[in-house]
Design a protein that fits this description.
With 161 residues, this protein is α/β, with parallel strands linked by helices. The chain is 35% helix and 14% strand. The chain has helices at 7-15, 28-41, 55-59, 79-87, 119-137; strands at residues 23-25, 47-49, 64-70, 90-99. The protein is extended.
Length: 161
């Protein structure tokens, strides 16, 4: 579910012969990419268009013994409802595996009980600003998607570490 380029779907299909794997995503362009990758790899990969926010679209899918949702639940309008929608896909005794990472890991409580709440988020933001400043000082430019990730310098033969 939320297959994107279907890396996990291909990994499952190619390591578990005989298992039926379907790549499901809410974006038609992603499913087009999956079909291209399937042809390139020679791995059959059925696709289905459905969103974890749309219980009716999910209800049209066959029930499964195992469902994988990787880095998609945090995109849902209502993550708890999305989890219920995903669980509804399962046969009795089926397993649902969720892999998330849509937000930075946090280890401190939101309110430590002293000072202004949100210390950890402020530290993360300060660290990101520091990295962006270091990148700029070394002639790099921020990635348009990540903001602080290293990207290629104008000379494409070198990149910023």
């Amino acid at each position: 579910m939320g297959c994107g380029a279907a890396s996990m779907a291909f990994a499952l299909a190619e390591t578990l012969p005989g298992v039926h794997v379907t790549a499901v995503d809410a974006e038609p362009a992603m499913l087009d990419l999956v079909r291209e990758r399937a042809a390139e790899r020679g791995t059959p990969m059925p696709t289905a268009l459905a969103s974890i926010d749309d219980p009716d679209a999910l209800a049209a899918l066959p029930r499964v013994d195992f469902a994988w949702a990787g880095h998609v639940v945090h995109h849902a309008a209502d993550p708890q409802a999305a989890l219920r929608n995903l669980a509804a896909l399962l046969n009795p005794g089926g397993r649902l595996a969720i892999g998330e990472g849509g937000t930075a890991p946090q280890f401190l409580p939101a309110n430590l009980g002293t000072g202004r709440p949100g210390l950890e988020l402020r530290l993360i933001e300060a660290g990101a600003r520091r990295l962006a400043d270091e990148l700029a000082a070394h002639g790099g430019t921020p990635s348009p998607t990540a903001g602080t990730s290293p990207s290629n310098t104008p000379d494409s033969s070198t990149s910023t570490p």
